[in-house]
């Protein structure tokens, strides 16, 4: 019989394809890394980085009490920033569930004085405000004995016994079922930690050491909620069953981090770039590397220039408030989006590939050219051979002086028209 067995090819449902379309048009979302680790102010990897034994780390939930947490305020902040969705850590590598789970007591309701499900509150606030919600879910776990064989990280952590991999897979399925049953419509699941089970020689990743059972897990998710978009931060080309491709701290096809992607890894799925506002995902009191408004906006514009979304992260403080610097950054982006969002939302990749000086987006017959260098007067668009009717400054009733020759298109931007962050030029195509 085996010769007639055909590998099951993933065919997305109609609901799923519609959700992908929505996702591709959304362009901007909020990433939230929040957990009991936030209390130590040293990022979400603190358990691993400081080799904190299980019994010591387990003290953290006992005083996690975010009295200032206001889900509606978080959602309003995201919405005012121009964001269309939120992706929050339901369970990070420390293995602590930030939601009411029946399959482990190691969760926010059972183990903290706060005693409430923060995801539930966020889900309700999102629904009211028409913001979509994604759950980040870690495949790797530094707390669960059944996460065995251990991966490349967390091996130094004391206090764990050996367990059974198949039980761990069943545990994840049970938790994902909870997440996709008790919180209404969930826009997506954002997996992370795949790479933990890859061989590692200190420099390069090698073969995968375990079976993650993605076929079963992805099928379960799509059966529970067909529209739920699956992404996996595995840093390889998309796997069958996934609905979008994410790029951590790198633009699609770039590899400045060392674990990024090559051009050949970029697939055909909707894309999402994720990045931090400072240099940390989880709350970090020593991080002073806050990106400027200019850097953040240009990053979003470049992402859109690849046809990708930007998922921009905040690491809320242990009391439930968002760091003031992060709030400020988001407020500034919101202002910019209110003025220029038309050139980002609902667009696709434009005819000029993003580089340090420019990016382009496109909607129908309109190309939005985004120019980042306000010191420059003459811009040259090599090989620009798209027939056009008109070139003017976006939102200003002023034509742009230009010239076409066999090499491409030349634009002249007068000093008074240049914007420090982004000078937007609107090209109407024929
Ligand atoms: C992962 C997480 O480890 C991190 O805490 C955060 O949630 C981020 C969004 O995603 O970051 C990675 C991903 C891959 C590697 C290291 C960190 N890697 O390949 O070693």
List the helices and strands and how they pair.
Elements (H helix, E strand, L loop, with lengths): L13 H13 L1 E5 L13 H4 L4 H4 L13 H10 L4 E7 L16 H4 L6 H12 L2 E7 L26 H15 L8 E5 L5 E3 L4 E4 L5 H11 L4 E4 L12 E4 L22 E6 L16 H13 L3 E6 L9 H17 L7 E2 L8 E6 L2 E6 L6 E5 L5 E6 L7 E5 L2 E5 L10 E7 L1
Parallel strand pairs: 1-2, 1-10, 2-3, 3-4, 4-7, 8-9, 9-10
Antiparallel strand pairs: 5-6, 11-12, 12-13, 13-18, 14-17, 15-18, 16-17
Bound molecules: 4-nitrophenyl 6-deoxy-alpha-L-galactopyranoside.
Pfam families: Alpha_L_fucos
GO molecular function: alpha-L-fucosidase activity
Enzyme class: hydrolase
SS field, number of helical segments = 10
Sheet with most strands: 8 strands, parallel
Percent in helix: 10-25%
**Number of DSSP strand runs:** 18
Cofactors and ligands: 4-nitrophenyl 6-deoxy-alpha-L-galactopyranoside
Strand order of the largest sheet: 7-4-3-2-1-10-9-8
* Whole-angstrom Rg: 23 Å
Order of helices and strands: HEHHHEHHEHEEEHEEEHEHEEEEEEEE
Distance between the termini: 57 Å
Q: Please state the structural category.
A: alpha/beta
Walk me through the structure.
This is alpha-L-fucosidase. Alpha-L-fucosidase is responsible for hydrolyzing the alpha-1,6-linked fucose joined to the reducing-end N-acetylglucosamine of the carbohydrate moieties of glycoproteins. One of its GO terms (molecular function) is alpha-L-fucosidase activity. With 430 residues, this protein is an alpha/beta fold. It has ten helices and 18 strands. The protein has helices at 14-26, 46-49, 54-57, 71-80, 108-111, 118-129, 165-179, 214-224, 293-305, 324-340, and strands spanning 28-32, 85-91, 132-138, 188-192, 198-200, 205-208, 229-232, 245-248, 271-276, 309-314, 348-349, 358-363, 366-371, 378-382, 388-393, 401-405, 408-412, 423-429. The strands form four sheets. An eight-stranded parallel sheet has the order 7-4-3-2-1-10-9-8, sandwiched between helices. 45% of the residues are buried. The model has no long low-confidence stretch (mean pLDDT 95). Bound molecules: 4-nitrophenyl 6-deoxy-alpha-L-galactopyranoside.
């Amino acid at each position: 019989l085996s010769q007639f067995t055909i590998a099951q090819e993933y065919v997305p449902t109609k609901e799923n394809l519609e959700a992908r379309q929505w996702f591709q048009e959304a362009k901007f979302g909020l990433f939230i890394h929040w957990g009991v680790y936030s209390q130590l102010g040293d990022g979400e990897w603190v358990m691993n980085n400081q080799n904190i034994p299980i019994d010591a780390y387990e003290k953290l939930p006992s005083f996690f009490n975010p009295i200032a947490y206001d889900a509606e305020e978080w959602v309003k902040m995201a919405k005012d920033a121009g964001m269309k969705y939120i992706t929050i850590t339901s369970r990070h590598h420390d293995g602590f569930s930030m939601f009411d789970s029946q399959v482990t007591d190691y969760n926010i309701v059972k183990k903290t004085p706060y005693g409430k499900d923060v995801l539930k509150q966020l889900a309700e606030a999102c629904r009211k405000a028409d913001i979509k919600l994604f759950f980040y879910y870690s495949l790797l776990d530094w707390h669960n004995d059944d996460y065995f064989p251990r991966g490349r990280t967390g091996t130094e952590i004391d206090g764990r016994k050996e367990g059974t991999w198949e039980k761990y897979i069943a545990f994840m399925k049970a938790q994902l079922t909870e997440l996709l049953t008790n919180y209404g419509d969930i826009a997506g699941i954002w997996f992370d930690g795949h790479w933990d089970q890859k061989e590692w020689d200190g420099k390069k990743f090698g073969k995968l050491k375990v079976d993650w059972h993605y076929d079963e897990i992805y099928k379960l998710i799509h059966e529970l909620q067909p529209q739920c978009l699956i992404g996996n931060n595995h840093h390889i080309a998309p796997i069958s069953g996934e609905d979008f491709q994410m790029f951590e701290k790198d633009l699609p096809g770039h590899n400045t981090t060392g674990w990024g992607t090559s051009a050949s890894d970029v697939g055909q799925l909707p894309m999402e770039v994720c990045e931090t506002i400072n240099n940390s995902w989880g709350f970090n009191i020593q991080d002073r590397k806050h990106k400027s408004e200019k850097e953040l906006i240009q990053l979003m514009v470049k992402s859109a220039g690849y046809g990708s979304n930007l998922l921009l992260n905040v690491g809320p403080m242990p009391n439930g408030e968002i760091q003031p610097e992060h709030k400020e950054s988001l407020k500034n982006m919101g202002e910019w989006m209110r003025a220029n969002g038309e050139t980002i939302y609902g667009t696709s990749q434009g005819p000029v590939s993003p580089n340090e000086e420019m990016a382009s987006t496109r909607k129908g017959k309109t190309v939005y050219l985004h120019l980042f260098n306000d010191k420059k007067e003459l811009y040259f668009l090599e090989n620009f051979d798209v027939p056009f009717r008109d070139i003017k400054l976006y939102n200003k009733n002023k034509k742009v002086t230009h010239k076409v020759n066999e090499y491409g298109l030349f634009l002249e931007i007068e000093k008074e028209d240049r914007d420090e962050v982004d000078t937007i030029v609107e090209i109407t195509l024929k």
